[in-house]
């Protein structure tokens, strides 16, 4: 699906996200990377850990997705109410 340009409306962030290096502080179990994405219009948090495959020794990124209940869910703009026409019957 093509993304709208700036003059066509807001940017569609569906099935997209970004991750950034995470400060682990004093906890080595914290994810190496953290970020957010949007799936089916719902916000998710992404956590990523750099791991090493046992058989090949190749590095890979292990991911976990968690529903982000605190993030605001985009809502469509309000549609103005249609004016009610007067009944033509003279009662």
Give the helices and strands, then pairings.
Blueprint: E1 16-21, E2 33-39, E3 42-52, E4 59-67
Antiparallel strand pairs: 1-2, 2-3, 3-4
Strand proportion: 35-45%
Profile the largest sheet.
Answer: 4 strands, antiparallel
- The SS-based structural class is mainly beta
- Sequence stretches where pLDDT stays below 50 over 5 or more residues: 1-8
Rg for CA atoms: 23 Å
Write the element-wise H/E pattern from the N-terminal end onward: EEEE
Overall geometric form = elongated
Mean pLDDT: 79
Question: Into which percent range does the helicity of residues fall?
Answer: under 10%
How many β-strand stretches?
A: 4
Strand order of the largest sheet: 1-2-3-4
Distance between the termini: 54 Å
- Secondary structure tally, helices: 0
Key terms:
single chain, four-stranded antiparallel sheet, 36% strand, elongated
């Amino acid at each position: 699906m093509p993304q709208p340009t700036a003059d066509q409306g807001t940017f569609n962030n569906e099935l997209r996200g970004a991750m950034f290096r995470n400060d682990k502080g004093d906890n080595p179990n914290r994810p190496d990377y953290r970020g957010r994405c949007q799936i089916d219009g719902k916000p998710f948090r992404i956590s990523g850990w750099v791991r090493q495959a046992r058989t090949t020794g190749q590095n890979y990124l292990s991911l976990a997705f968690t529903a982000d209940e605190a993030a605001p869910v985009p809502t469509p703009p309000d549609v103005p109410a249609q004016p009610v026409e007067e009944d033509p019957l003279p009662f």
